[in-house]
Amino acid sequence: GREEGSLMFDLFKFKGGVKPPTNKAQSTTLPIAAAPLPARLAVPLHQSIGGTPRPVVKAGDTVLKGQLIGQADGWISAAVHAPTSGTVRAVAMRVQPHPSGLDALSVVIEPDGQDRWIERQPVDYGKLAPEDVRELLQAAGVVGLGGAVFPTHGKLTAAKSVPMEELVINGAECEPFITCDDLLMRERADEVVRGIGIFRDLLQPQRVLIGVEDNKPEAIAALEAAVRARGESFSVVAVPTRYPAGGAKQLIRVLTGKEVPAARRSTDLGVQCFNVATAYTAWRAIAHGEPVVSRLVTLTGNVRQPRNYEALIGTPMGELLAVAQPNPDTDGIIMGGPMMGFLVPDRDAPVVKATNCLIAHSDRLFPPAPPEMPCIRCGECARACPHELQPFELYWFARARNFGKTQEYAIFDCIECGCCSYVCPSRIPLVQYFRFAKSEIWAREREKNAADGAKARFEFKQQRDEREKAEKAEKLAKAAA
């Protein structure tokens, strides 16, 4: 149990986890700065989970900052907007930030340097029906900025069956190197708290818990002051620094003691979780009429000037990273952190809503992985796994391409946090094997569904042919008679 009303919480623990060096101090010495306007912006239309937005502009169109360029496709989808004023040069396939290196349909804009906004329509959301607020958030392109980029409005309907007990706000930011949420909480705490107020009013939870890792005392103090100043009853809770404490299920476990089973959603247990940056953008969208056209990005790693920048969506990553003065031996860019991030295939890949951090890569900073050795079944990976899986078994079955067995061992419970790879004494890149197995299972499902569809169509055609033959015979018999 715990004492209500006091900020002294009895925190719960999640299993497993690791403590890698945080490498956060480098990028928190300076305030947030505005990134320079790039010469070209390439804005991918698909930047969130759900349907791919449809382009509503064409080459030659002039656009204003914040103008709609991609219309949401379906309920789980979010609109996309022009990050600055200028001319649309193309709506075409361009490289996207994805390990595959595949292209995506993008709107290429040449800025005019004026950065002129659309006419912004601030709204007093207290006067609106909840569904209107949700539609506004969808139209403003508000998605989960903690990395999952799930359209936010889709999470803001309270379930009828289960009362909403806790609204959990995630300011943990547990991955090494990343500090964009930390700086946001320090510098813009008031707007974060106002955004949390919007979520609270839509979901009507019994209480609001804001979880921040205890290695961010300035962020915690700033949020506490903002909560007091607004007279809110939100609890700001310092959680122990341990990766992956910022995973939604881990943070829910630490703050509420509730275990969310793999196949279920947290809402089944009366909990909903949002990132602090998502709350901030929701407030800007509603109270200032600003769609999501930029985000805070940590520039760090092998650079001379690590810092957090507010960067326009669509900015080429190489151009943005140049602002932090990478050292000459920089040989690549990691998007995200060292645990879950990936090397981007191309320096021209654009900043998207999911881009929270760019790390300049060098062998000096990230020495190449030594050769993989055989698994000795020591069980270190199982001890580190926050979801209590058995990675050594999953690895064995994934390697043997026995995908049925990987599903028996709950491979889809794996959140790809990388704790197992981090502790493995044989230096096996376990997560890579699990990603491979998942994609193979998905591919086989798709093939099976396609084959089932083809079979059904073939059988239907056969039935139709036979029916037509019978009808023809019947007609002939009638005619003869």
Characterize this entry briefly.
The chain is α/β, with parallel strands linked by helices and 481 residues long. Helix content is 31%, strand content 17%.
Topology (SSEs and partners):
Elements: E1 33-34, E2 41-44, E3 54-55, E4 62-63, E5 68-71, E6 80-81, E7 86-95, E8 103-111, H1 130-139, E9 166-171, H2 180-187, H3 189-203, E10 207-213, H4 217-229, E11 235-239, H5 248-256, E12 271-275, H6 276-288, E13 294-301, E14 307-312, H7 317-322, E15 332-335, E16 342-343, E17 357-361, H8 380-384, H9 391-399, H10 403-408, H11 419-423, H12 430-480
Helix pairs in contact: 2-4, 3-4, 3-6, 9-12
Describe what you observe in this structure.
- The chain is an alpha/beta fold and 481 residues long.
- The protein is 31% helix and 17% strand.
- The chain has twelve helices and 17 strands.
- The chain has a six-stranded mixed beta sheet.
- The protein is globular, with a radius of gyration of 25 Å.
- The model is unreliable at 1-7 (pLDDT under 50).
